[in-house]
Each structure stands twice: as structure tokens, then as C-alpha cells.
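Dear Dr. L.,

I hope this message finds you well. Following up on our conversation about the binding site, I have prepared a predicted three-dimensional model of the protein together with N-carbamoyl-L-aspartate. For your records, I am including the exact sequence and ligand specification that went into the calculation, followed by the C-alpha cells. Please feel free to forward this to your student if that is useful.
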Amino acid sequence: MTRHLLSIDDVDAAAMAEIFDTAAEMHDVQRRAVKKLPALRGRTVINLFFEDSTRTRSSFEIAGKWLSADVINLSAKGSSASKGESLRDTVLTVTAMGVDGLVVRHGASGAAHQISQWVDVPVINAGDGMHEHPTQALLDTYTLTRRLGSLEGKHVAIVGDLTHSRVFRSNVKALLELGASVTAVAPPTLMPAGIDDWAKAAGFATSYELDPVLPSADAVMMLRVQRERMSGGYFPTAREYTVGYGLTRERLGLLGADTPILHPGPMNRGLEISADAADSVDRSVVLDQVSAGVAVRMSVLYHLLAGEETP
Ligand code: NCD
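The resulting structure of the complex is given below.
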């Protein structure tokens, strides 16, 4: 693996397989009564979160702790960033304390990459603006691999607010790298600018319509409508969005009986995903994604920070 994890471009299929193998071992640890492994004893990891987060931050924290690292959480609210300190000064200040790894979430696309040039410890991108969220794509593809086996030739539909989604951008790359085919579905207003060129170059499909895509999908990934990143009206009403692009109870009938439904969370129930879909026992893998998140992040921390030692 590379020294940092800033983008899915940093991991090819072979590196993903290695991360998944270690994650599977870590997954077993999750089921034990005593969950600690000594792999990162004596190491310190800082979670530097300049944007809100529930699962990403807590799963990085749990992952670090289960590997026996000391984990410190810093968020912009409550840190000197809210007093006007620059990003560079904040980062240099915390790394001067002697940390071994930084996990960064920031609203600006490219922030993690920029930070990696200021420090000499591994940096993990936990979401940078509308750019990438590589550990999310790794945990999503790990979840799918456990459910479907090899993703070679599998068809995955990614549906929703693609314009604002770093989860979409990282997942397309990860899925294609693993041999899956991808159809990106969104209303025209939520299709990223220039997607046609990217789709042609990378080799994935796009569609403004959901219904024709679902019957051939081996998995469907629903993405959140990111109202906090929207400045104007991207669709007329919430109801209209749901009618066109929500995974409603009626649309579940277009999916196979055990076709996995993914959502990275947080979910807008009733908007992009119905309760019937989110809670479908045979199909929803939303909570599998959350538990895979801890295992995959343990694996990533281990590969980046533990050096040659075995767990
Ligand atoms: C995603 C994120 O923050 O990019 N959530 C997550 O990490 N679980 C997706 C989202 O906010 O909709």
C-alpha cells in the first residue's frame, strides 16, 4: 500500500484484496468478548474532523482503540479552528505533539491531500468535500464481496445525489477496479457536470431513470440527498424526488429477492429510501456496512501504521 490513503487511486485490486483479507480477520475480533489486539500499542492517532460525522468518526475511533492505539478526537467546533487558526497551523500543532497518523475529514475537496504534504505521518482521508471518501468505498465493496463473492461482472446501480457525493466518486473507481459494471442514476440536476466524459473514459453507464436499471442490478447503493451542500433548488419538491428516484416500497418489486441494498448513512428515510427498503431483512445491508466499517478501518490503520509487525 501507499503511505497515505487519500483516494481510491491509492489502492489497486491487489491492495484491496489485502485490505479485505485483514479486515476479515479483524471482523472476527469484533465478535470476541475482549476485542483488543496489540498491533498499534504505543501509537497515537488523531481524528481531525472539520465536518459533522457519526459513523465515520466513531468507527475510526473504535478501530484505533481495538488495535490498542491511543486515539484523540478533535473537531473544528471546540478547537482553535473556530478561533481563526489556519488549517496548516492546526495540523502542524497537533502533529508536533508526536502523533503517528492523522484521519482527516474536511469540507474542502483536496484538504487531505494538502495536509499530507505538510506532515510526515500517514494521512487517511475520511471525506474531503465532494471529492473522495476512500474508506467508505472500501467498506462498501468489502460488504458486497462478502455478500456476492467476486464482484467481477456484477452490476451495481448507484442512485441519488451524485453531484455532491464523495461516496459516489470513490465507489465508482473501487467497483470498476474490482471488475463490476456500474450505472450511475440521478436526475439531470444532480448528475455531476462533465460526468459523460468521465463515464466514457472510465467505462460506466449513466441514466436519468431508475426503473429500467433496477431489474438487472446485482446490488443497489442509495445515496443521501445532501441538502447541506445545496444552495438552490435541485428538484421541485421532496415528493417529486421520491417518486422519480426514491427506493420506494413499490420499486422493491423490481429488485431480486435478495439483492443487497446499501446506504452509507445518514439516511433520509422517506426521501431517498423507504422504511421498507432500509429495514428489509433479506436485502438491506446498511448495518453490515457499519460493522464492516470498523473492520475495514482497523485493516487500513494496521496496513498504514503497523509496519511489518503481524497482528
Ligand atoms: C457520507 C459522507 O459523509 O460522505 N456518510 C458517511 O461517511 N457515512 C455520506 C453522506 O453524508 O451522505
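In brief: The first strand starts at residue 44 and ends at 49.

With kind regards,
A. P.
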